[in-house]
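Entry 12.
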Amino acid sequence: MKSKISFYYNYNLFINSFKERNMESSNIRTEVIKEVNLIPEEKLTELYKFIHYFRLGVEASIETVVSKTKNDEERREKIMQFAGSWNDMSDEVFADFNEEIVTRRQQAFLRRRSDESSLD
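Predicted 3D structure (tokens):
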């Protein structure tokens, strides 16, 4: 356990030192390779697994963000299709419509509450 804590501590120091130096990508890659070359042979398998799964996690995160952004845009477009749908309604009809929505929501909520209380 102590070696893992030590590893993460050293890893954080390593990352922070690069942030402080504001190195370019090619310089960072060179420094990472230098550090990897200093790793004892028996620890290379662990290091490989860490780097490999870290990269896979980064790729999955990027795919998730891209997918979510695309879904959000599609949802926004569908919602915006309804924008202004009530412009043609008179104020009186809109008020009645709005009142009907409020009433139905209250009834649905009361039904749900009574269903939940009957389970007790």
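Annotation: The two ends are 47 Å apart (CA to CA). Residues 44-80 form the longest helix (37 residues).
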